[in-house]
């Protein structure tokens, strides 16, 4: 009896150590119980946030310098299912600087956030609208020997965020990753990927259009050490490439009794509070596709219903 109780405590303790997205005891609203630094009430610089028109233009924010992004790096890269996302670990050779970043940052990995079959899953939102996916390119300040040290520095990480939107045509460069997803379906699985110019994945004609703010990791321990750069123009992939993320990746190990698809791996929006969100010199400020308010379609529909209603009433 005592043994059973002790075992239960151990099991639930081990279980609660990992975070998740889909169960109330470990989902983003419960992260603060396991990781105090994820508690949104104690700290005010969390991510993600909603991007709206309350932003400040800063004419000195120009292109970031993306070193090594146009080249084919040597060695191989590793794609990994870590149970929370699909991570592409890139070797050395790439770094980001300039564009108002306080230092040089080495590129260490990129990963993705997505939704479900009928849910968009970007972490940041634009005027309350979620894009289908978001890609994060994570860079660590070059003076730090390891991640532990970087997480102690208020500007220890620079993350480049890219919205991913969907069209009919496949994105051939993105296919180099999405084609490998079936090899990393289960937690812990890895696959080798031949390096390719990372710039091929990015909206290369619009790299001077971005937003900048100071925030946190969007996964535990939610450290408030991130200089965020969110690019305004999305990357486009096809519906079937999106479906590979929402249907082929599992948060559980291959031999787990219950197989749980990994979906909606995004953290909820946090208030901006007194933070300034800056707009780069060239950003168009949320015009174009991103700014079409959802309201107009809804209100038009309402208007039709009202008109139809009054027509019916007057007809009676
Ligand atoms: C504009 O950005 C630069 C580079 O990050 C920064 O030094 C400067 O303080 C910013 N200016 C304003 C008005 O925020
Ligand atoms: C989800 O993404 C699609 C494709 O970009 C877009 O048309 C739709 O408005 C988005 N839905 C929401 C609720 O943000
Ligand atoms: C990380 O770097 C710090 C600072 O140099 C060092 O004290 C620490 O032992 C390192 N931690 C690990 C896990 O390597
Ligand atoms: C992307 O950049 C091109 C070239 O500078 C520009 O003509 C286009 O309007 C930009 N696209 C968006 C959506 O801002
Ligand atoms: Zn992320």
Count the domains: 1
Please provide the count of β strands.
15
Query: What is the rounded distance between the termini?
Result: 74 Å
Q: What is the CATH superfamily label?
A: Alpha carbonic anhydrase
Beta-strand level of the residues, as a percent range?
A: 25-35%
Compressed to H and E, one letter per element, the order equals HHEEEEEEEEEEHEHEEEHEH
Helical content (DSSP H or I, runs of 4+): 10-25%
Rough outline: globular
CATH architecture: Roll
Strand count, sense and barrel status of the largest sheet are:
12 strands, mixed
The CATH class is identified as Alpha Beta
Bound molecules: 2-acetamido-2-deoxy-beta-D-glucopyranose, zinc ion
Number of helices: 6
Give the radius of gyration: 21 Å
Structural class: alpha+beta
Q: How would you state the average pLDDT, rounded? A: 88
Short description:
By secondary structure, the chain is α+β, with helices and mostly antiparallel strands. It has helices at 2-17, 31-34, 147-150, 172-178, 239-248, 294-315, and strands at residues 50-51, 56-57, 64-67, 77-81, 86-89, 95-98, 105-114, 125-126, 129-130, 133-141, 157-167, 190-193, 210-215, 226-238, 278-279.
List the helices and strands and how they pair.
Blueprint (H helix, E strand, L loop, with lengths): L1 H16 L13 H4 L15 E2 L4 E2 L6 E4 L9 E5 L4 E4 L5 E4 L6 E10 L10 E2 L2 E2 L2 E9 L5 H4 L6 E11 L4 H7 L11 E4 L16 E6 L10 E13 H10 L29 E2 L14 H22 L1
Parallel strand pairs: 1-8, 2-15, 11-14
Antiparallel strand pairs: 3-6, 4-5, 4-12, 5-7, 6-7, 7-10, 8-9, 10-11, 13-14, 13-15
Keywords: Glycoprotein, Lyase, Metal-binding, Signal, Zinc
EC number: 4.2.1.1
Catalytic activity: hydrogencarbonate + H(+) = CO2 + H2O
């Amino acid at each position: 009896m005592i043994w059973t109780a002790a075992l239960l405590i151990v099991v639930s303790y081990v279980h609660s150590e990992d975070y998740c997205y889909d169960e109330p005891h470990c989902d983003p609203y419960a992260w603060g119980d396991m990781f105090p630094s994820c508690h949104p009430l104690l700290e005010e610089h969390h991510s993600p946030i909603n991007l709206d028109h309350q932003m400040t233009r800063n004419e000195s924010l120009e292109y970031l310098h993306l070193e090594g992004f146009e080249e084919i790096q040597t060695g191989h890269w590793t794609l990994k299912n870590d149970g929370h996302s699909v991570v592409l670990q890139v070797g050395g050779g790439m770094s980001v600087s300039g564009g108002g970043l306080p230092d040089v940052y080495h590129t260490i990995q990129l990963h993705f956030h997505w939704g479900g079959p009928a849910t968009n899953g970007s972490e940041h939102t634009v005027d309350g609208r979620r894009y289908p996916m978001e890609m994060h390119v994570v860079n660590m300040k070059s003076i730090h020997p390891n991640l532990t040290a970087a997480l102690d520095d208020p500007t220890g990480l620079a993350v480049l965020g890219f919205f991913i939107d969907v069209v009919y045509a496949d994105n051939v460069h993105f296919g180099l990753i999405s084609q490998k997803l079936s090899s990393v379906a289960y937690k812990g699985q890895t696959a080798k990927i031949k390096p390719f110019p990372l710039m091929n994945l990015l909206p290369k004609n619009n790299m001077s259009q971005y937003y900048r703010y100071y925030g946190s990791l969007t996964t535990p321990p939610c450290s408030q050490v991130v200089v965020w750069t969110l690019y305004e123009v999305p990357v486009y992939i096809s519906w079937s490439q999106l479906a590979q993320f929402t249907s082929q990746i599992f948060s559980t190990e291959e031999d787990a009794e219950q197989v749980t698809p990994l979906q909606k791996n995004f953290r909820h929006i946090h208030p901006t509070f007194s933070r300034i969100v800056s707009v780069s010199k060239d950003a168009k400020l949320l015009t174009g596709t991103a700014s079409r308010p959802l309201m107009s379609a809804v209100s038009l529909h309402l208007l039709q219903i009202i008109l139809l209603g009054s027509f019916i009433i007057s007809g009676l």
